# Entry
Amino acid sequence: MKEKILIIGACGQIGVELTLALRKIYGGENVIASDIRDEHPLLAGTGPYTTLNANDADNTRAIVKKEGITQIYLLAALLSATGEKDPKLCWDLNMGSLRQVLDLAVEMKDERKIKIFWPSSIAVFGATTPRQNTPQLTVMEPTTMYGVTKYAGELLCQYYNRRYGTDVRSVRYPGLISWKSVPGGGTTDYAVDIYIQALKAGKYECFLSENTYLPMMYMDDAIRATIELMQAPVENLKTHMAFNLSAMSFSPKEVYESIKKIISNFEITYAPDHRQAIADSWPASIDDSTARAEWNWKPKFDLEKMTTAMLENLKK
Ligand code: AKB
# Structure
């Protein structure tokens, strides 16, 4: 069957790269990018773009029907740090948009099957979760509103799958490091800023302390994981909460040292702020054996490989 894809939140950190990758696979005209913001410059001329508020159910339904959409990637969200500034908006956006897309898939069920991708995060875990090698199935008591929406969202996805047979797939993204589009409002954002500032200013003040270990992933791996999960045969997928996903775990000090191997005069200082408490409540490393078993997930980038790629690409 010919796939027709709608991406909601296409101008964010994941959205830009995912849209470009999906357009390569399915053809530019078959991937409709949408966002509440103006079109990202990197998307211009690569395929159709429309302005869409993720919480606008009528407009979303109209696009899905008119365009014959078969897959929706719902990426619009408020992240952990921004979510703490406005917890109500975080709940309304993150949960409202998910509920509406799930309902749309149920409403359209007899006409056309719609497959959904919705991202979860390591923010579903909290201080009571085992921090090292966090298992797929474990205690989840998130401390941020963002984490609460991701955990509730995972349960909602699982409920719609069991109750209505909705094909909705999800991963718990670690901190994502990218150079094409930057993150906004997350706790792991330092791991992108540090590369940009290393090249721009030769120094960086980090908002997390030097030994704060967090699970991280280069964007190329994250995009490949997302597409591989969406292409996996449905009968292989036994897990209907989001999959743990892992590539590497490092601290600000370690990423600093890996940059310093290439930019020898690079300097770092540490000034932990309110985001430190969020980072301290998250896992240091993740066990992703379920993803590896059910859909053959395997990362390609480690810290050294990623540092080389980030600095080379940002320089260009
Ligand atoms: C954040 O820091 O809020 C995000 C995430 C880990 O989900 N990058």
Summary: The longest strand covers residues 31-35. The chain has a mean pLDDT of 97.
